[in-house]
Amino acid sequence: SGLLRAYAETSDAIKDHYEFMPFLFERGPAERLVEQHERPDIATFSVSMWNEQLSLALAAQLKHRFADCLIMFGGPQVPHQGIDYFEQHPFVAVAVRGAGEQPFYDVLARLTQASDLSDIPGLTWKDPSGRIIRNEGDAKLPPDLDTFPSAYVEGLYDCLFDADGEPVGHLQFQS
Questions:
Q1: How distant is the alpha carbon of residue 74 from its chain centre?
Q2: Per-residue pLDDT tens for 111-142?
């Protein structure tokens, strides 16, 4: 998630158009987690086997409370043949197959101007009429991963640690 955001923020257009909210690293009832948000335009989820059910519940609650919020899923749990996934989870509007860095960047950039995502490889998405579209091609990582800035160097995780580098708040570890 940090890498995707750090890369997206290399675009002045994206930085000017979007205000990124803090990362949410909590578990708990979806209703309580939704209360932490105030009218999000886009909610993105990095979905793995261990967090898929909570992510689905949270996304459904967000869409119920904020009907205009675009829900985007990515990560290893997103199926490559996603038509059934969209039918089972109608609140998901965009799913990214494979490497997410470039598609995430491209979706955010595109949505500043239009709603047509048809030429972004690696996406399954719903057009404004609700039709589910699976774009051809898969998103791939560039040969040089140094293309992407570091979320750590950019300070995107600084809020998770105190001045001594120790975890803060809900991330406290017990020995």
A1: 6
A2: 998 889 999 999 999 998 999 999 988 877 77
pTM above 0.85, yes or no: no
Count of alpha carbons within 13 angstroms of residue 89, beta-carbon side: 25
**Which string of DSSP letters, residue by residue, matches 43-100?**
EEEE--TTTHHHHHHHHHHHHHH-TTPEEEEESTTS-SS-HHHHHH-TT--EEE-B--
What is the rounded CA–CA span in Å between residue 7 and residue 25?
A: 20
pLDDT tens sequence across 52-84: 998 899 899 999 989 999 999 998 898 887 788
User: Which residues are within 8 A (CB) of 164 and not within 5 positions of it... i.e. 6 or more apart?
Assistant: none
Structure tokens at 29: 């009832």
